[in-house]
Design a protein that fits this description.
269 residues, 29% strand, 21% helix, six-stranded antiparallel beta sheet, five-stranded mixed beta sheet
Length: 269
């Protein structure tokens, strides 16, 4: 399955077909429903699978797409799977009608098609990815009893918990599959390229932050204050429960989290 998905309104087919052909001419072959959905299959299921499998979700902004139920459905599915959203502006329109998750990102304008295509290709091929003008600068490593995964922070805000009640339109969702974690456990927020964490709406005894000491090995524990954002630094570890921890890691052009997976640090309770 191709890692690039294009969400668009069929009313903008001429623009999108031109975009697909232009990307193919540069050696990039995105998933395109008119070409990649086979005959006699459930087309909605094929689209959902394609969104889940993609890494880059291109959202074509136009007066047609922002009123399309299908584009909204695809966007919400991409947000729910923490895909990198790349907004492409095909036609000018007023800001207030654009979905908030698209508004919070800088867009790639195609008022000059060639310049827009070149910037899109640069974004698609950039190390770690760029959310179109907002550098991707951090990743979370989430460890439970039986699993470990990494979560790249593409959006500016995330809600963390076993079942956060907030909407995807307000921020990303980080689901914690741990009965000991709270439903709405914490919030991550990015302000001026600095990530901070906020404790949940109620006191949670298990939300604590382990900060690396000067020797980089032993960690010092401190409590996260209620209702106040605590700035994060590279290497900070947040305990969501006795069984689940998140480690905040900042990315640099030559840094890969894969180099550190498996390297556990000694901790002090």
């Amino acid at each position: 399955m191709n890692e690039i998905f294009i969400s668009y309104s069929r009313k903008d087919l001429k623009f999108v077909q031109n975009l697909v052909d232009s990307l193919k001419a540069q050696g990039i072959n995105p998933w395109f429903d008119l070409e990649d959905i086979r005959p006699a299959v459930q087309w909605q299921q094929e689209i959902l699978i394609a969104v889940q499998a993609c890494h880059n979700f291109i959202y074509v902004i136009s007066p047609n797409s922002v009123t399309s139920e299908y584009c909204e459905w695809e966007l919400n599915h991409a947000l729910g799977h923490n895909k990198r959203i790349i907004p492409v502006l095909a036609s000018p329109l007023t800001m207030d009608v654009i979905p908030y998750p698209i508004r919070e990102l800088n867009w790639i304008s195609f008022s000059d098609f060639d310049k827009g295509r070149n910037l899109l290709i640069e974004t698609l091929e950039s190390p770690h990815g760029i959310s179109t003008g907002i550098s991707l600068n951090a990743v979370l490593e989430i460890k439970t009893k039986n699993s470990r995964r990494q979560m790249y922070l593409y959006r500016n805000k995330y809600f963390i918990g076993r079942k956060p009640k907030e909407s995807l339109s307000e921020g990303g969702i980080i689901l914690i599959n741990d009965a000991k974690a709270s439903r709405n456990h914490a919030t991550l927020k990015k302000n001026e390229d600095r990530w901070s964490i906020l404790d949940g709406h109620f006191p949670f005894n298990n939300l604590s932050l382990y900060v690396p000491s000067t020797n980089g090995v032993v960690l010092n524990k401190k409590r996260i204050a209620q209702r106040a954002y605590c700035p994060l630094k590279h290497g900070d570890r947040i305990n969501l429960s006795p069984d689940t921890q998140m480690t905040y890691k900042e990315l640099s052009p030559d840094y890969s989290i894969h180099d550190e997976l498996g390297d556990d640090k000694e901790t002090v309770s």
